[in-house]
Amino acid sequence: MMSGAPKDVGIRAMELYFPNSYVEESELEEFNKVSSGRYTVGLGVKEMGFCGVEEDVTSISLTVLSALLKNYQIDKSSVGYIIVGSETITDKSKGVFTALSQLFDKNNEIFGAECIGACYAGTSALFNAIDWIYANWQRERKYAVVVMADIAVYAPGPARCTGGAGAFAALIGPDAAVAFEEGLRSAVLKDVWDFYKPVCGLSTEYAFLNGQLSLESYLRMLDFAYENYKRKAFKLRGIGISLSDFQAVMLHCPFSKLVQKGFGRLVYKDYMEGLQDSLVEPELLDTINKNLWEEKALPNLFFNLRIGNMYTASLYAQLFGLFHSKRQKYSPAAYTEILAARETFTNGKKCENIFSYITLLQQ
């Protein structure tokens, strides 16, 4: 076990879970009597996973964490912190992390916490886990576990096709295969009522959604976060950066066409700042954008296109697509109506040790 101050803190092992039930979006178009391609082409969705009555956010969290511990043979006594990021609650007081404690046998000396903040809650939980390692490693010598789990369900209507379900779990510690670069986080905080789930006097799991405002907020927050990120990167490194500096880019994915639109805005920003050397003529921008999208972002959406929106886990499902393509450096951004965040990761030589197991509940 490593001694001294922790270095290269990040993801040492990870696991993805998704339910075994799904619907073809093309069949959903037919069922809802909408034009062919409205979902599959207009939104860029292929399939949508959903949970049966036997599953809830607690059970899928237990499933993904149990698989993480088993598949990577993690010593349960080596874990000192559990944190869950989710916007799907089953109890207004008792957090999901308390249920996860039953997986650690006799190890009950574990700190725990829960993050709620729409889709950003997963990234918030991850940041908290990383910071816990930095703050406690020299004394505790214990790892952190982060779980992100959500079930996205919408009322009948235009948003229902953008549902989904899934859970992500990761072991956080020093000397990680996916190490987070210190000091290079960017955040934008804003209170927007585009998506919310009030609990007082209501018994529905459906969110109140202002679709147009939500799309605008996603793109606006992404703009601000990218600008802040560039400023911080220049302050730390003394050089400007662009998407060309990353071998892969991931954005939070409610549906792929929104990710593509957000990616295009980042390319355009780089172009306007003169950071894309290859963008010589404005008329070439669409072609360059398409090429960059297909090279750096689209391959990572393999699971998202087939599972749908997993809220907190949607960004991190793209890690699996990333490792399939064996890239070594990437930059993701997570969005919610409250906050957009961006963090740089540098993948070390231990990538082969983190290639994850995909857990699918068998009938």
Automatic annotation (TrEMBL):
Record-linked CDD domains: init_cond_enzymes (cd00827)
EC number: 2.3.3.10
Ranges for domain Hydroxymethylglutaryl-coenzyme A synthase N-terminal: 6-176
Pathway recorded for this protein: Metabolic intermediate biosynthesis; (R)-mevalonate biosynthesis; (R)-mevalonate from acetyl-CoA: step 2/3
GO molecular function terms noted in the UniProt entry: hydroxymethylglutaryl-CoA synthase activity
Catalyzed reaction equations: acetoacetyl-CoA + acetyl-CoA + H2O = (3S)-3-hydroxy-3-methylglutaryl-CoA + CoA + H(+)
Catalytic residues, chain numbering: 87, 119, 252
Domain spans labelled Hydroxymethylglutaryl-coenzyme A synthase C-terminal: 178-274
Keywords linked to the UniProt accession: Lipid biosynthesis, Lipid metabolism, Steroid biosynthesis, Steroid metabolism, Sterol biosynthesis, Sterol metabolism, Transferase
InterPro entries on file: HMG_CoA_synt_C_dom (IPR013746), HMG_CoA_synth_N (IPR013528), HMG_CoA_synthase_euk (IPR010122), Thiolase-like (IPR016039)
Ligand binding (CoA): 214, 257, 261
Record's function text: Catalyzes the condensation of acetyl-CoA with acetoacetyl-CoA to form HMG-CoA.
Family (UniProt): Belongs to the thiolase-like superfamily. HMG-CoA synthase family.
PANTHER family for this protein: 3-HYDROXY-3-METHYLGLUTARYL COENZYME A SYNTHASE, HYDROXYMETHYLGLUTARYL-COA SYNTHASE
Identification of the protein by name: Hydroxymethylglutaryl-CoA synthase
